[in-house]
Amino acid sequence: MLVALAGGVGAARFLSGLVRVVPEDVLTVIVNTADDETFWGLKVSPDLDTITYTLAGCVHPEQGWGRVDETFTVIDGLARFGCDAWFRLGDHDLSTHLFRTSRLAEGATLAEVTEEITRAWGLQPKLLPMSNDRVATRVTIRDDDGSLTNLAMQDWFVKERSRGPVTAVDFDGAMEASPAPGVLEAIATADTVIVCPSNPVISIGPILAIPGIREALKERRDRVVGISPIIAGAPVKGPADKLMAPLGIEVTCVGVARAYADFCGTLVIDSLDARHTTAIEELGVHAVVTNTLMTDARVSAALAQCTLEAVA
Ligand code: GDP
Ligand code: CA
Hints:
This protein is α/β, with parallel strands linked by helices and about 300 residues long. It folds into three domains: about 35-130, Orthogonal Bundle (Helicase, Ruva Protein, domain 3); about 135-170, no CATH class; about 185-310, CofD-like domains (Rossmann fold). The protein is built from 13 helices and 14 strands. The strands form four sheets. Strands 5-2-1-9-10-13-14 form a seven-stranded parallel sheet, sandwiched between helices. Strands 7-6-8 form a three-stranded antiparallel sheet. Strand 1, helix 1 and strand 2 form a beta-alpha-beta unit. Helix 1 crosses helix 13, helix 4 (about 90-105) crosses helix 5 and helix 7 (about 185-190) runs parallel beside helix 9. The radius of gyration is 19 Å and the shape is globular. It starts with a strand and ends with a helix. The relative contact order is 0.15. The structure holds guanosine-5'-diphosphate and calcium ion. Guanosine-5'-diphosphate binds near residues 8, 9 and 50.
């Protein structure tokens, strides 16, 4: 059995390669839900949906999230009422949020709805939300006048276009949350646990913040392998650098290795970062060098193969 810890786009690209090199039904993916937000009364789970659409083969290929061939009739219709629809939910995508919201209102848990959604798409891998409880990433930024503004993750990332400087990141509700049923068991019994190339602060960070998960990973440190989302001192895409630096995490694969060192015994880094191997090994983390820039599914599959062999 294989377990992967995942955020959204970076993770989804990696997982689409992984399912080419292992039987799909051996895979359990534990997904960040701290980006979840309610829009127009609808429960949106961006990372779960990105992974579902990617594995189902219906994701927007360039964007990496949302559905391919999407239309925006409903959201554009809201403009008539003077609504500021800055979070662009597509018409097809809305059906997922309508279904999720109605099932949650009927009393289903997020894990149950996720199982129903992935079954409807015919997915073989098991997707588990990190928790059934509400956890919400909050980002604090400093304005020009020195005042601090505390924003919900999507407000900061989408509406405010990841404006900085960031002074703090918090995971509201994490300390009171429990891992979703099956999460700790999956980690404890997995042959290998993969930490996908995802944002270390706001994708992997919230999963680690739920009491019990980091401890469970530490128990399996020899079997945990990560892939650095930072290549040559920068994220491939997204705001990881704006979040890592203020938290004292160096924006390099060495910084990632240091942040993960207590629970992750092996880190796969990019060929461009080969010179950092010694610094990573000095942290007690085994470093494996390969091409990690996932330009297509073939590269993702080769990266997945290399990642599995790194702990074979
Ligand atoms: P999000 O929730 O959609 O932001 O998704 P993730 O947290 O899973 O992915 C964002 C992270 O993935 C960023 O830090 C990127 O640097 C990383 N990433 C995206 N594409 C690649 C890639 O091709 N290779 C590597 N190594 N990292 C990538
Ligand atoms: Ca996300």
